[in-house]
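Slide 14.
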Amino acid sequence: NNAANTNGGGVYCADSSPTLENCTFTDNSAGDNGGGMYCNASSPTLTNCIFTNNDAVDGGGIWCAWTSNPILNGCTFTNNAAGRWGGGVYCYDNSSPTLENCTFTENTANGGGGMYCQYSSSPTLDNCTFTDNTATYGSGMNCWGASPTLTNCTFTNNTARYGGGMYCRYNSSPTLTSCTFTDNTAHDHDGGGMYCQYSSSPT
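Slide 15: predicted structure.
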């Protein structure tokens, strides 16, 4: 736990771009942002890293903002939690990470149990899986003024009030190619697979 700083329980990155391989982030917490990792104008490269049981107000696993564009390959996010946005990964203000072969399982948040993208943050995801995540808005992925690109991604058994698999709001225009939505649920409300509000139609 990071007691000296309310951001970055496990790792704090500011204007830096470290390379991490085969690292594990477990049981870290932050009073504000980035339970596992905090990225401010930073673009680290992570390969085969594991984020488990981390928590924060925003970005339980990873928080990235202000033009942070990390590259993640083969990373796993399991049982991370955010009090507000982005149980697994939170992207804010022109931060567009690239994720390949990443897995999001049993993460929780108010918005974006697996991943939350806001304000011109448009991540690229290839062959990523979202399973058993929960949230009020968009348990797999939540987009707010963001337009992610997803290829060969799978959303399975995610549960939310709005947008079981994906939630898109305020000029969010995601592009999805060869993606699969199966057994997702929006209990009591709308968009079991995908919910779009005040947004252009997704492609």
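Speaker note: The CA atoms of residues 157 and 184 lie 4 Å apart.
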